[in-house]
Amino acid sequence: MKVMGKHVVLSLVLLVLGFMIAFSYNITNNESTADINKNSWEKEYQLRKQLIEQEEKNRKLQQEILEKQEKITNIEKELAQEEQVFFNLVEDTEKYRLFLGKVKVKGKGVEVTLADGEYDAAEENVNNYIVHEHHIFKVINELYISGATAIAINGQRLKHNSYIVCNGPVINVDGNQQPAPFVITAIGDPNVLESALNITGGVKDQLVNENILFTLEKKDEIILDPILGS
Q1: Residue 195 to residue 183: CA distance in whole angstroms
Q2: How large is the angle between the packed helices 190-198 and 133-145, nearest 10 degrees?
């Protein structure tokens, strides 16, 4: 009985000891798991916080990019406008130079020849069959209206303030005498210039009715030299 009592006591002691060890291990294990979970949550929280901060920085950078792109777009528009202004200035300058006769010009065009009409013994007034300045003015004005960029009479280039004066069988162009026949060369679209002069009831018909010999020829190339001197 004493031996059995000792065994029972020992068994109880071992049982309690085992329970205490298991309980202690369980507590320790739970604490470790809690620590791990806590550390994992803290890391996740920090990562989320960093991600939010990074996204905020990205948004700010994107906003800066949009603002800079808008500035670049505005600068490009301003440059395009300036370029167009400079282009227009250059284009206008070239037109003025052509108008003033300051540059050599080459291109297609027409050549109009005005010659005195055939002598008619029955005609008392000789002026009725010779070319006058107003005949030449009609041709020149029609050519300019039709888009001619440069015109010359007998090779003499006209300028913005040119004058033509009739002096018997010859005319004075800016003080230089030019004899008949008068060859008027004009640079421009040959088809347009020809149609403008040959229109029914137009310049050609008017000159022919006034006994002026009128001929027109289209040219693939006409070269007019610039006006020299002051």
Answers
A1: 18
A2: 130
Q: What is the pTM of this model?
A: 0.59
If you ran DSSP here, which 8-state letter would residue 81 be given?
H
What is the DSSP-derived secondary structure letter of residue 211? T
Beta strands in the chain (DSSP E): 105-115, 150-153, 156-157, 164-167, 170-173, 176-179, 182-187, 213-224
pLDDT in tens, the chain (230 residues): 555 555 666 666 667 677 677 666 666 666 566 666 667 777 787 888 888 888 888 888 888 887 887 888 888 778 777 777 767 777 666 666 666 667 788 999 999 999 988 766 566 666 677 888 999 999 999 999 999 999 999 999 998 888 899 887 789 998 899 998 999 999 999 999 999 999 999 999 999 998 899 999 999 999 998 876 65
Domains of the chain: 107-222 (3.30.70.1880)
Q: Where are the alpha helices (DSSP H) in 101-189?
A: 133-145
Residue 71 CA to residue 67 CA, distance in Å, equals: 6
